[in-house]
Amino acid sequence: MSETLRPRKRAALARLQLDNLDMPASGAIASGLPSQAPRRSAPTRARLRRRRVVVGAAVVTLVALTWLAVSYTSWMVRPSSMSFGERSTEWIRTLPGGNWVVDEVEHFYYTLHAPKPGGPQLKALPAVGLSESSASHAHPTTTTTPATQAAVWPPPIKPVFAHPLPGEGVWKPTGSPVDGGPPVLVTTFRPETDYPQIVAYVAWFDHTRTALAYYPGRYEPPTAAVRGPMMVPMSQRSRLLATFNAGFIYSDGTNGSTDNGLVNEPLTDGNATLIGYRTGQVAIVKWSGGANAGPNVAWARQSLAPIVWNGQLNPALNNNPDSPQWGYTLGNAVRVWRTGVGVDRRGNLIYVVANDQTVITLAQILLHAGAVDAMEFDINPEWHTLITYTHQPGLVPMMVEPQPMQSPDRYLVPDDRDFFAVYRRLPGPVTVPFK
Predict the structure, then answer these.
(1) What are the pLDDT digits (tens) for 62-83?
(2) Is the domain of 140 the same as that of 278?
(3) Residue 23 confidence (pLDDT)
(4) Is 326 in the same domain as 401?
(5) If both were cysteines, with which of 27, 73, 148, 252 could 248 make a disulfide (CB 3.0 to 4.6 Å apart)?
(6) SS3 label, residue 423
(7) Is 250's pLDDT higher than 50?
(8) What is the C-alpha to C-alpha distance for residues 154 and 172, in angstroms, rounded to an integer?
(9) Please, what is the average pLDDT of the chain?
(10) How many CB atoms lie within 10 A of CB 381?
């Protein structure tokens, strides 16, 4: 009996062991092959792939954010004359695609806030310059006869409106006379009948009584041959008459510049170039002379293409937003603060700053003010700056146009951007005095 049951017990035990094994193992035992680990199902593999993608994206994001944080911090802690917002905006422009982002935001903002035609008339123009009584009180020993004034002063700017406001287009002196005449004159006028609230501020510099100097700023031009003081040198302030902003930065149109025969950034053929010769004369030319202006030039500064040439508007001027030749940041047609310089028929320099201008209306203002050749300088509300100075007896700066984003002391302390200083003329060849 017991012998008969043993084979049955052994068979039952074998079946029990087989029941405790999974099918692949049973198959392996049945086939005589070694057992293998079970394969993961398809949903498990998909979850693993998603996990790898998420982890990889997180690593890339962390690296990018770290790089941005380091870049932004490094940019913001460097010395600067700009406000926090201006520095942040300029940092965004340095990023890949950042320039386009800022341009689009600015374009949308200024288009949205563009002035509408019409509106109430101004009752008075902003006061600029010195009145005859204050000028004679400040300099009682210096007089200018009407004949002398007519010989050296430019003609008044003809008002555009049928009923001009008091003093509209009438030149007024600023600061001290030089050789019995005013070296700097300023005036205001309304340039467009459709926009009676817009005011143009104009300055005229007598090239026979003044000497202009071009100074690099802290960061512009990028590779200045001599960086200099980045402000009006202390040793030259006793003869300082005026300062004003320069043109588009080098990267916006490869706008070159030189000082005392040294190249800051190479001059580009075809660009409008404001030149100060060692003789004291100034001119605007279409440059075609190579990278350096040469030894006969005290300084040279380029800014895009001419907007007025030989007494005519440049025929290439247009308001086409797809062809922003004179406004890479805001286009030709966006109405925004714009500045420009021109040379009149006697070789004197004219500077213009006005709010809510297109490139065409800016060119028309310069032409109307007497420029025969002209070029656009810096645009946007942050950068326009026209300052005149009196010595009573200390140096007193006066911002000519409304500019809440800059101080009248702007160029008396180091500044990030390049600029021009207008001095009382001294005997001898004109150079840029850095000390």
Answers:
(1) 887 888 788 888 878 888 888 8
(2) yes
(3) 47
(4) yes
(5) 252
(6) strand
(7) yes
(8) 11
(9) 85
(10) 14
